[in-house]
Amino acid sequence: SALLAVADLTKDYGTGRRALDAVSFQIHTPQLVGVIGSSGAGKSTLIRCINRLVEPTSGSVKLHDAEITSLRRNDLRAMRRQIGMIFQEYNLVERLTVMQNVLSGRLGYVGLWTSLRYRYPPEDIQAAYALLDRVGLSGFENRRADALSGGQRQRVGIARALMQRPKLLLLDEPTASLDPNTSRQIMELVSNVIHEEQMPAIINIHDVGLAKACCDRIIGMRDGRKVFDGPSSALTNQR
Ligand code: ADP
Ligand code: ADP
After folding, report:
1. In the 8-state DSSP scheme, what is residue 87?
2. Which of 18, 38, 140, 154 is most enclosed, with most CB atoms within 10 A?
3. Which pLDDT score is estimated for 121?
4. Whose atoms come closest to the Cα of 76: which ligand?
5. How far apart are CA 136 and CA 218, in angstroms?
6. Ligand 1 site: residues with CB under 6 angstroms?
7. Measuring from each residue's beta carbon to the nearest atom of ligand 2, which residues come in under 6 Å?
């Protein structure tokens, strides 16, 4: 069965025009799936409907056979623990240290105070050190998030998401605020870690060249519809 199965996913924000129109695809192997398309094509809506940051109007999303779209609040919260999310604006807690931000991935985004008072078991702390090393931030543990560059922040975001031991990683324009060099480094890091950890990831990415270079598979979106789905190598330059 599929790691992720999306079927007829549709979103109408109430504007009369479908932002997402019956999009279906499945992911069967750990791979980096790039979602491309011009602004307004529905890329972000697609990514956000998968973990219901945006509520889909209809359709189905199954993560390892568990249906996400029908879950009630509490079960949805538990399900989101299995989906790592990485944002364009990083969403770090600016006044906390790199280490505190990464550790908070273990508890989720509910209750910062819970997260601060919580006594993390040594294996969590070890895991956080290992992840920081993996994303190239060894020695940055005690820096405050607000003292980091954009690229460093996104590395923290990646380590925090991996701290959840997710079954799926969703990345919503993670490189949109970064310069081309840093974007490339972040994409290569994402590609390497998801293959190492054997987890699928879906990334909303504006830069088609970068998507083609770093993603295993490309889903092309236009006007809310899926207009391309295939290996990156099959993507032609005129679209
Ligand atoms: P992309 O990520 O490809 O730029 P989006 O998913 O952000 O596309 O948007 C798809 C369409 O849905 C666009 O027409 C956009 O204007 C519309 N849209 C996105 N968010 C909202 C919202 N909160 N309310 C109404 N319309 C929205
Ligand atoms: P926007 O771009 O519309 O301002 P954001 O992308 O900044 O929205 O974040 C939306 C909300 O989702 C934030 O409050 C954020 O803390 C929360 N959030 C962060 N990670 C997750 C997750 N994995 N699952 C669900 N919600 C999350």
Report:
1. E
2. 154
3. 86
4. 2
5. 27
6. 13, 15, 19, 37, 39-45
7. 51, 53, 80, 83, 85, 87, 89, 91, 109
Inter-axis angle of helices 122-134 and 98-107, nearest 10: 120
In the chain the beta strands, taken as DSSP E runs, fall at: 4-12, 18-27, 32-36, 58-63, 66-67, 83-87, 168-172, 201-204, 217-222, 225-231
Mutual orientation of helices 98-107 and 150-163 as an angle, nearest 10°?
A: 30
Q: Are 147 and 140 in contact (CB under 8 A)?
A: no
Q: Which of 221, 231, 239, 224 is nearest to 35 (CA)?
A: 221
DSSP letter (8 states) at residue 234: G
Query: What is the ipTM metric for this complex?
Result: 0.73
How far does the centroid of ligand 2 lie from the alpha carbon of residue 53, in Å?
A: 7
pLDDT of residue 68 exceeding 60: yes
Tell me how far the alpha carbon of residue 43 lies from the centroid of ligand 1, in angstroms.
Answer: 8
Q: If 0-12 CB within 10 Å is exposed, 13-18 middle and 19+ buried, where does residue 221 land?
A: buried
Ligand 1 pocket: which of 10, 12, 13 to mutate (most atoms <8 Å of CB)? Answer: 13
Query: Average pLDDT of 167-175?
Result: 96
pTM above 0.80, yes or no: yes
Looking at residue 194, its pLDDT comes to 96
5 beta partners:
26, 62
Do 145 and 95 contact (CB within 8 A), yes or no? yes
For 9, 113, 123, the CA distances from 196, given in Å and listed in that order, are 29, 33, 20
pLDDT the model gives residue 237? 64
Alpha-carbon gap, residue 37 to 43, rounded angstroms: 7
